[in-house]
Amino acid sequence: MYKLLIVDDEQIEREGLKAILQHGLPDIIIEQAKNGNIAVQLAEEFRPDLILMDVKMPGINGLEAVELISANQPSIKFIMVTAYDTFDYARKAIKLGVKDYLLKPSKASEIVTTVQRVLHLIEEERKTVETTELQRTALQRVMPIIETDIVTQLLFDHVHEVHLDELVGLLGVHTANEKYAMTVLLPPGAESCYISIKEKVRKMGSGWVGAMYGRQIPIIVFPEADKSYRSQAVTMARELLAVAKADGNDGWFVGIGGVYESLDQIRQSYQEALMASIDPSLPVKYRFYEDTPVLGVTRDGYPVKQLEQQLFDRIRLGQWEQVRNDLTDFVRRYENEGANLVHAQQRVLELLWIASRVLLEMGVEIDTPMFSCQAQDYRQLRAESELLLERMRQSYTEHHERIEPDAIQQIKQYIADHSHEDISLEAIGRMVGLSPFYISKMFKDQLGINYIDFLTECRIKKAIKLMADPERSLKEITYMVGYHDPNYFSKVFKKMCEVSPTEYRKTLLGKSASS
């Protein structure tokens, strides 16, 4: 249903136009105005889709009325009705966005055809707006999935070159600024607070929340450029801890990593955040990595940060013999330097704690490593350390043995069957009972690709099959295979197939026609 306003100072002209249009287009609702001032007022009250505007009227003329109405309601379309067919008039009308004009007098068929043409334009615009709104709604729905998957890729080194820039763009964050990572450590039984934390970060509009693993929640934070990093981080940590108080929970702790320029470096900040939360019993329930006690030694000339990074990587890869050698060398270095035994035991415990956190990422639940007593000498420290490390290795091995041998095949089949849906690592993890991070690692280890690589392959294969049907538009195919933005689909397709969807389809349909 469309609404049309006829504006003319001659009543006979208004009535004539109304009669012609009601006969030719019986579904439209028509109102009349006898001058420009009344037209401006009626445009506010009646909200027409289209206005037939006379040019020469007493008071404000038609072009002036168009300018006033368009300023407040830019979506209204105009057809000018005039006895003057001059270049100067046409130039002004085009500048104001007038869609067409009718010369007095006009045939009834010409009037109806002109109005139909503009109404068709309005209908097309409505469809475009509706499609855009559907896309926006779909993107809002999928945003949490995009967010958690990006955090997983960034923090666990599974960045996908095709998707990352596009996905970051969809989230609407200016990543050129500095950024840092946080980790929220929850006490047992507080896992249900994950949603509250996501809502809090979303309201603050300052970061992305990753998938929860174990009882840890990773967050990538984008601070405001004109405020200090520490003051903003403290504010955010306190806001997150306030969620705990609101839910009646205690025992939360927030670790805060260092600031880095590039998203490529955010993984280091995240590992620093883990180190900062090494002792959740501190009276202040948040700590910066830069405020934590430094391990205080170097190994073969490399700084401690590199030793920490090496430990993270080797445990993720299951290189337990190398981990054992690193730990032994670490203890020997302290012994050779004649370091205080209590101090050395604390530093070894910190490294073992790093190992336990990495295992937790992979879905291996273990108790926080603790020495049974204070070591009396370095020989006992080595023995106790190796015992704790061996328990971790056993937990790791048992975890692997519990996993179904065909878990990766189950996951591949699930992705293939549901590739047109908004699926995520979290959803897959719930289905197979594995952590999102471990699933991502399995894909890398066993298939050599990221799970998003595989998801993309499934979607592109489906798109190619659908392209063989000339009745389907590329926009329709975009939505059918699981994408919400035709431009993004086109970029991904070109990256995978080296030609655009349009070019590929021309070739495909050309081959079909010739055969």
UniProtKB/TrEMBL annotation:
Domain HTH araC/xylS-type: from-to ranges: 409-507
SUPFAM superfamilies per the UniProt record, alphabetical: CheY-like (SSF52172), Homeodomain-like (SSF46689)
UniProt domain Response regulatory: residue ranges: 3-119
Residues with the 4-aspartylphosphate modification: D54
Keywords linked to the UniProt accession: DNA-binding, Phosphoprotein, Transcription, Transcription regulation
Entry-linked InterPro entries: CdaR_GGDEF, CheY-like_superfamily, Homeodomain-like_sf, HTH_AraC, HTH_AraC-typ_CS, Sig_transdc_resp-reg_receiver
Alphabetical list of SMART domains matching this protein: HTH_ARAC (SM00342), REC (SM00448)
Source species, domain of life: Bacteria
GO molecular function: DNA binding
Protein name from the UniProt record: DNA-binding response regulator
Source organism of this protein record: Paenibacillus glycanilyticus
